[in-house]
């Protein structure tokens, strides 16, 4: 299987993380996530390739112009806005760009001109820090998804994009949950430029709320998500089984929320339901949002899937017999993330 990787991912290295009322000098998404996956892929003798540049056009097919401009200019605007506080010594440095205020539900949200206002307008939560060089990593991550989709369009049975940062929580005009551009949606849309119908299946332990929103009113892209019940799991407000799509997209959105600590049998049963729906839809290509944070050793402690479970999942997806783009999403145990990914890929290739 061709693997697409970019060293640009290391340009995104958040210096802090907000959780439980504190900003701490930690990030769940350090560069080591991608490096550890890369080393595991090399041990399994995968062909690791650089992606040619595809520019902004494939990204702009999914995301709004205002959002793309924001991502490219956010840190510089943030730094300029902080200059008065830096000059007086109130701040020692400006740090990553974080939102201060979010649009209030039920109130028309006018698009602001200020750096602080735009940070809140384009974010769904505080898990979206933007540093001085984050855009380079964000754009490179999306470019990998385009490269993998292009490889499949050119006849490859499958291709894997080692995307970091992840993308499935990103909507058309906002990000969150350590996601900025929706890599899986960008891959799916790029596939649509050359084929008829695409299915997207998200097996990350968190619901792919951004991907759902992007395709919610469309029937040319089927979206399915298997994830921990959002009643007590991020993203909390979306990801329930009654969400079926709207307009032309009604019936083309399927959520399969699972209980905490579901385990292999429950996870694989949901995957079987998902695969039956995919087979009935008969897509020309498949995109897999490959989150491995459901592993039993992941610090999120949510689905408790074993290596055997991930191997079986990869094999079941492979047996669909559909040209497939696999896009990296979550996974936060640095010791196991690489083995989780290669286990899925090995299962897929064995099918």
Q: How helical, in percent, are the residues?
A: 25-40%
Q: Please give the CATH architecture.
A: 3-Layer(aba) Sandwich
Helix-strand pattern, N to C? EEEHEHHHHHEHEHEEHEHEH
Structural class by secondary-structure content: alpha/beta
Number of separate domains: 1
Q: What name does the CATH topology carry?
A: Arginase, Chain A
Give me the CATH superfamily: Histone deacetylase domain
Number of helices: 11
Strand order of the largest sheet: 4-1-5-10-9-6-7-8
Distance between the termini: 13 Å
Strand portion: 5-15%
Mean pLDDT across all amino acids:
95
**What are the low-pLDDT stretches, counting only 5+ consecutive residues below 50?**
none
CA radius of gyration: 19 Å
Quaternary organisation: single chain
The global form is: globular
Main attributes?
metal-binding, His_deacetylse_dom, globular, 11 helices, alpha/beta, 10 strands, two-stranded antiparallel ribbon, 351 residues, Arginase, Chain A, 36% helix, hydrolase activity, 8-stranded parallel beta sheet
Describe the structure.
The protein has 351 residues and is α/β, with parallel strands linked by helices. It has one domain (2-66, 128-350): Histone deacetylase domain (Arginase, Chain A). Helices cover 36% and strands 13% of the residues. It has eleven helices and ten strands. It has an eight-stranded parallel β-sheet with strand order 4-1-5-10-9-6-7-8, with helices on both faces. A two-stranded antiparallel ribbon has the order 2-3. A hairpin with a 2-residue loop joins strand 2 and strand 3. This is Histone deacetylase family protein. It comes from Phenylobacterium montanum. Its cofactor is Zn(2+). It holds the Pfam family Hist_deacetyl.
């Amino acid at each position: 299987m061709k693997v697409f990787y970019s060293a640009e991912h290391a340009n995104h290295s958040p210096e802090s993380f907000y959780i439980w009322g504190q900003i701490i000098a930690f990030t769940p998404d350090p560069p080591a996530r991608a490096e550890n996956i890369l080393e595991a892929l090399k041990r399994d003798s995968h062909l690791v390739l650089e992606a040619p540049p595809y520019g902004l056009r494939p990204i702009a097919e999914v995301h709004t112009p205002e959002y793309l401009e924001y991502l490219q200019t956010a840190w510089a605007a943030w730094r300029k806005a902080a200059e008065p506080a830096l000059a007086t010594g109130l701040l020692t440095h400006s740090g990553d760009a974080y939102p201060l205020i979010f649009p209030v539900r039920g109130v028309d949200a006018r698009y602001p001109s200020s750096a602080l206002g735009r940070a809140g307008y384009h974010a769904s939560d505080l898990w979206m820090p933007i540093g001085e060089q984050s855009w380079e990593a964000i754009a490179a991550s999306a470019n990998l998804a385009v490269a993998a989709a292009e490889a499949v369009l050119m006849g490859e049975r499958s291709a894997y994009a080692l995307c970091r940062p992840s993308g499935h929580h990103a909507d058309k005009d906002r990000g969150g949950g350590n996601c900025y551009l929706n890599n899986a949606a960008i891959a799916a849309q790029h596939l649509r430029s050359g084929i008829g119908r695409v299915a997207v299946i998200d097996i990350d332990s968190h619901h792919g709320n951004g991907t759902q929103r992007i395709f919610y009113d469309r029937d040319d892209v089927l979206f399915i998500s298997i994830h921990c019940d959002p009643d007590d799991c991020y993203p909390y407000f979306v990801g329930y089984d009654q969400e079926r799509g709207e307009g032309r997209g009604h019936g083309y959105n399927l959520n399969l929320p699972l209980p905490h600590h579901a385990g292999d049998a429950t996870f694989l049963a949901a995957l079987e339901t998902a695969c039956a729906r995919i087979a009935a839809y008969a897509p020309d290509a498949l995109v897999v949002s490959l989150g491995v944070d459901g592993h039993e050793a992941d610090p999120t402690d949510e689905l408790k899937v074993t290596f055997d479970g991930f191997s079986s999942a990869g094999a079941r997806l492979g047996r669909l017999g559909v040209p497939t783009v696999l896009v990296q999403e979550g996974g936060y145990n640095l010791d196991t993330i690489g083995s989780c990914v290669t286990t899925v890929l090995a299962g897929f290739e064995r099918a």
